[in-house]
């Protein structure tokens, strides 16, 4: 609901403002909205958005996610500062992150599946499980190579 402004009229007791009943109806509507917590307008925020109790409020939800997040300086996650340095490197707690453990599938720019994280395969290549089986049943490198060639 948009804020309801009481029409005061052009002069005292002139009669062109809101009647008392209408004016106090608007007051009640405005307070009802404030007390219901429906007063957050992120595009019109002039102060920090702070929860009333530490660790109790969410920003978005699994079924109502934000599309983009623009942060000028830093993000703190569980007390660890996350940032990007001048060279574009990801820093967590001040350290460059070299070996990131990324889970899930990987897609090319054209949406081609490059790594299938669900089935643990690289499309067009032999899966790790097949390689393990080939190693287990092979008694020599030649037998292993023959097994792989015939896949």
Description:
- With about 150 residues, the protein is of the alpha+beta class.
- It has three domains: about 1-45, no CATH class; about 75-100, no CATH class; about 105-150, no CATH class.
- The protein has three helices and six strands; from the N terminus they run αββββββαα.
- It has helices at about 20-35, 130-135, 140-150, and strands at about 75, 80-85, 90, 95, 105, 115.
- The mean pLDDT is about 80.
How much helix, percentage-wise, in residues? 10-25%
Instruction: Supply Rg.
Output: 31 Å
Poorly predicted ranges (pLDDT <50, ≥5 residues)?
none
The total strand number stands at: 6
The run of helices and strands is HEEEEEEHH
Strand order of the largest sheet: 1-2-3-4
Mean pLDDT: 81
Overall spatial form? elongated
Strand content: 5-15%
Strand count, sense and barrel status of the largest sheet are:
4 strands, antiparallel
Total helical segments:
3
Give the N-terminus to C-terminus distance in angstroms. Answer: 65 Å
Counting helices, strands and paired strands, the structural category is alpha+beta
């Amino acid at each position: 609901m948009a804020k309801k402004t009481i029409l005061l009229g052009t002069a005292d007791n002139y009669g062109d403002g809101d009647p008392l009943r209408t004016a106090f109806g608007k007051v009640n509507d405005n307070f009802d909205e404030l007390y219901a917590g429906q007063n957050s307008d992120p595009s019109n925020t002039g102060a920090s958005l702070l929860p009333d109790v530490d660790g109790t409020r969410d920003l978005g939800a699994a079924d109502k996610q934000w599309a983009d997040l623009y942060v000028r300086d830093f993000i703190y996650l569980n007390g660890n500062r996350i940032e990007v340095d001048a060279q574009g490197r990801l820093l967590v707690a001040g350290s460059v992150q070299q070996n990131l453990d990324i889970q899930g599938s990987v897609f090319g720019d054209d949406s081609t599946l490059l790594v299938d994280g669900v089935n643990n395969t690289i499309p067009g290549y032999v899966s790790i499980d097949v390689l393990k089986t080939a190693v287990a049943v092979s008694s020599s490198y030649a037998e292993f190579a023959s097994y792989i060639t015939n896949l």
